[in-house]
Amino acid sequence: MPTVDVTMASRPLLKVGKYHLAALKQTAETKGLAIAFTPTVNALATAKTAREQAEDALIEPRATARFAEAGLEVVIHEIASQAHSSDRKAGGDLVFKAIFPNGLDAEIRPRGAAQLTASTALRGRLDSQPAAAPVKAQCLKDLDTAMAALGGALESRRMAEQALGLARAAEDGARETFVSSYDSNAGAIRQMFPRNHARQDLYFDQIRAGQSSGGDDNNGHDPAPPSPDPKKA
Fold first, then answer.
1. Is residue 231 part of a domain?
2. Which of 68, 160, 170, 210 is the most exposed place for a label (fewest CB within 10 A)?
3. How far apart are CA 102 and CA 183, in angstroms?
4. Of the listed ranges 44-53, 201-210, 221-230, the one predicted with least confidence
């Protein structure tokens, strides 16, 4: 009789669970267990699907956020280029240092929300430093656009990540309920047929969770059914 536990993925759990459910429906003694177990199997299948959908829903926000980060970096590099150009005309590095007091790398190294925070500070310097006025005139609008794009992308990604976290938690709960119900059914079947281990085994898939459908000891074929023995029933 195969065992299951909550560390197993939902797919193999559903595989053994669906077999178990189909087996319970085969005999009058166990049909009541089948009726009770059906919502548990359905709940796990639903939770698994919801988690997979949440994973898929996160893909586009992740990609959008990465491109928004890259777009903001392009604007920051352009600001640095304009600052160097102004400095070359005036001599020295006053403009660049006014905008990038910690160097360019400090502005483009951060990722995600940290990059947005760093860019907000950079914008403040670009807007307030008198030496940065020529660069501000050329780049402030592009910086605002890129920052807004990143801010929106990060919020969309955060919401998708939150939804995925909730979906995973729901699936974990459904998996725990499934394992508890499956174990309870195993105990009930042992009590129904206490001395007939072959009869007990009929209600549980011979393929261990995690194996392929043809990976059992019988090369994918069901084992021979037990000989009927009313005395052991």
1. no
2. 210
3. 61
4. 221-230
153 pLDDT tier (thresholds 50, 70, 90): very high
C-alpha distances in angstroms, 31 versus 27, 169, 229? 6, 31, 21
Instruction: Give the number of domains in the chain.
Output: 1
Report the mean per-residue pLDDT for the chain: 89
As a whole number of angstroms, the distance between CA 129 and CA 88 comes to 18
* pLDDT tens readout for residues 51-101: 999 999 999 999 999 999 999 999 999 999 999 999 998 888 999 999 999
44 touches 10 (CB < 8 A) = yes
Asked whether residue 179 is domain-assigned, the answer is yes
Tell me how far apart the alpha carbons of residues 106 and 90 are, in angstroms, rounded to a whole number. 25
Domain that holds residue 36: 10-201
Q: Which residue has the tokens 């502005």?
A: 107
Q: Which residue has the tokens 């005139």?
A: 137
The per-residue DSSP string of 162-191 comes to HHHHHHHHHHHHHHHHHHHHHHHHHHHHHH
Asked whether residue 207 is assigned to any structural domain, the reply reads no
Model-level pTM? 0.79
Distance CA 58, CA 69 (A): 17
